[in-house]
Amino acid sequence: MAWAVRGRSASVFGRSVWRGPRDRRALALTFDDGPAESTPDILEILAQHDVPATFFQCGANVDRLPRIARDVAARGHEIGNHSYSHPYLFLRSPATIENELRRTQETIERHTGVRPIWFRPPYGTRWFGLGRAQRKLQLTGVMWSAIGYDWNRRADEVVSRMAASASNGAILCLHDGRELREKPDVRTTVETVRLLVPLLLDRGYKFETIGRLLCPKT
Predict the structure, then answer these.
(1) SS (H, E, C) 28-62
(2) What is the pLDDT of residue 217?
(3) What is the DSSP letter of 124?
(4) Least confident window among 16-25, 26-35, 209-218
């Protein structure tokens, strides 16, 4: 059961992916828990290198910072659903899970004009009823190949971990927010992005959104 709930390759509780094809030197950089007040700092670094990313946003944070959410979309990045209130989904009722996902879909679409097709569960946990909610809302779950632990490690440690985990088709997970906190301290994440992006570009990797990585011909 533990693997079904948290295993990155598990699809017991709904369709889910954790990496892309290995036949191209491409990977995806993803961010969870935003938007936050420091998200624009990350957007500027990505713009300097002309690198796209996928931002899994919490509906409550989008309601709080709609301008920043719109800026993410306007700059050509992809927006995914990360629930409305960032709860652990295990032991929640199917109705509660569906409401979390549906409310976020509506919130993101209302503020940005974008309706997500990707969903990342908060804390990487899934439960009964999630698969049905994903099907109803036409969402595919996305886990990760490597997570940075950028909320409790130094930037150099996160960069080392992410660089060591980089491979064809990898999905790398960082955080531009800290759950639903206002003005979270994400300096470690910003510094990680500043160092990691040019490092991986120098290694010949191409950064792509989740959609482009998983569906390169679309």
Answers:
(1) EEEEEEECCCCHHHHHHHHHHCCCCCEEEECHHHH
(2) 65
(3) G
(4) 209-218
| 126-185 pLDDT tens trace | 989 999 999 999 999 999 999 999 999 999 999 999 999 999 999 999 999 999 999 999
Distance CA 192, CA 34 (A): 16
| DSSP label of 209 | -
- CA–CA–CA angle 145, 198, 81 (5° rounding): 40
pTM: 0.96
For the chain, the maximum distance between any two Cα atoms, rounded to a whole number of angstroms, is 47
**Domain count across the chain:** 1
Handedness of CA 173, 177, 178, 184 (dihedral sign): positive
In the predicted model, what is the mean pLDDT of residues 179-200? 97
| Domain CATH number, residue 81 | 3.20.20.370
* Residues identified as active-site: 32, 175
State the Cα–Cα distance between residues 63 and 8, nearest whole angstrom: 29
Which run of H or E residues covers position 94?
Answer: helix 94-112
Domain hosting residue 81, numbered range: 2-214
